[in-house]
Amino acid sequence: MDWNDYDAALFDLDGVITPTAEVHMRAWDKMFNDFLRDRGVDEPYTDADYFTYVDGKPRYDGVRSFLASRDITLPEGDASDPVSAETVSGLGNRKNDDFEQILAEEGVTPYPGSVALVEALATRGTKMAIVSSSRNAAAVLTAAGMIEHFPVIVSGKEAGERGLAGKPAPDTFLDAAAQLGVPKERAVVFEDALSGVAAGRAGDFGLVVGVDRGVGEDALIANGADVVVDDLAELVEETGVTA
């Protein structure tokens, strides 16, 4: 890729900048399997369910999507529901508690290749934003020591407050580009989730880069990625910035 063609980089967070996708996966696994076990459901929640129904989506959408796959219907509830509530919101809040506990106990270290690309783009003067379905984006960036690079953060929290549709809709990415003052055609989307690359393609951005952290190159391309890399370090040389 030629960075002269682009003025902004819009990064998903979990699985792209930080390995918090692994923390999210563990938290989803604990919450859903505890829930299924309590209801006497034999078929467990698996990593395949995470990639198919949950990955990249706003939290409550992920709950709703997975439950539908098991023909389970719960009341919606609302964001104030306690973690003990058997509602879509209650399960989502339960998962978030599990996530925050794991993050507090173990912390988070960003991917070295992602740090290298972000620092190169900062040196180059490329505008950057985080576009994440997670409501914990700012806390994760702070814990990772990366928040200074991202003056614009469109997380699940901001999206919910402002009524922006979550991924795979392109709304949050379009909002981030607008906040940076960059036309969508001059912005690059970086995503590891199928719903994320689909959002990038739906928004007709200049380039959609899939980051393969396990979902597979073919699936990322089929859902909207123009190119796929295993690590963002592969794109540092193209910035023209040398260490």
UniProtKB/TrEMBL annotation:
InterPro entries: B-phosphoglucomutase_hydrolase, Beta-PGM-like, HAD-like_sf, HAD-SF_hydro_IA, HAD_sf, PGP-like_dom2
Cofactor: Mg(2+)
Reactions catalysed according to its record: beta-D-glucose 1-phosphate = beta-D-glucose 6-phosphate
Recorded superkingdom: Bacteria
EC number: 5.4.2.6
Keyword Isomerase attributed: yes
Alphabetized UniProt keyword annotations: Carbohydrate metabolism, Hydrolase, Isomerase, Magnesium, Metal-binding, Phosphoprotein
SUPFAM superfamilies: HAD-like
GO molecular function terms attached to this record: beta-phosphoglucomutase activity; hydrolase activity; metal ion binding
Family from the record: Belongs to the HAD-like hydrolase superfamily. CbbY/CbbZ/Gph/YieH family.
Name of the protein in its database record: Beta-phosphoglucomutase
Origin species: Aeromicrobium yanjiei
